[in-house]
Write a structure and sequence with these properties.
Subcellular location: Cell membrane
Protein name: Nicotinamide riboside transporter PnuC
Family: Belongs to the nicotinamide ribonucleoside (NR) uptake permease (TC 4.B.1) family.
Strand content: under 5%
Oligomer: single chain
Helix content: over 70%
Organism: Pseudomonas sediminis
Membrane topology: Multi-pass membrane protein
Largest sheet: 2 strands, parallel
Length: 189
């Protein structure tokens, strides 16, 4: 455990806590966190997770814009639900992304756990995109992904990060319950 991992984990808790409360400051705090984790994952040779953090950095900017300027009236998005087709499409993209990235990481790098790391990366991107768009289903996907990450990081002996993802799991459950009660909840394609 390093001080950098400790700072990144702390920022992660704050960012997800703010996300549950639909506070747009979750995005700039999350941006700092993902950049710190990009550095850490490079050191740990978890290249799919490094790539994930760099993509998360772009999604942090996208989410900040969506939450503050997105929506029909450009006054920020409201919580909505995805339709079944959109959920299935997102999950299919996750499966395809996991296969492609897993193949690339297993074939062309010395990555630790290339297939599992790639699968978690692909589904994390789907969940993060849904979160940036304030889709309720992001939380259910995050719960599943975060539980897998806890096991993955425990196996990798990255205990502080495993603890962070256990906290993320609890926050994701709270996010599901909180956002589900939002009065503006509507279905969108």
């Amino acid at each position: 455990m390093s001080w950098l991992e400790l700072v990144a984990a702390g920022l992660g808790i704050v960012a997800v806590w703010l996300t549950v409360r639909q506070n747009p400051w979750c995005w700039p705090i999350g941006l700092i966190m993902v950049l710190l984790y990009a550095w850490l994952f490079y050191d740990w040779r978890l290249y799919s997770n490094l790539l994930l953090q760099l993509l998360f950095a772009a999604l942090q900017l996208y989410g900040w814009w969506q939450w503050t300027r997105g929506g029909d009236r450009h006054d920020g998005r409201k919580v909505s639900r995805l339709g079944v087709v959109a959920v299935l499409t997102g999950l299919l993209i996750g499966v395809l992304g996991a296969g492609l990235l897993g193949y690339l990481m297993a074939t062309y790098t010395n990555a630790n756990s290339p297939w599992l790391d790639s699968a978690l990366t692909a589904f994390s991107l789907v969940a993060q995109l849904w979160m940036a768009q304030k889709r309720l289903q992001c939380w259910a996907l995050w719960v599943m992904v975060d539980i897998c990450y806890v096991a993955f990081f425990m196996y990798s002996e990255l205990y502080l990060t495993a603890g962070l993802y256990a906290a993320f799991t609890a926050l994701a459950i709270n996010g599901w319950l909180t956002w589900r009660c939002d009065s503006a909840l509507q279905y969108e394609p």
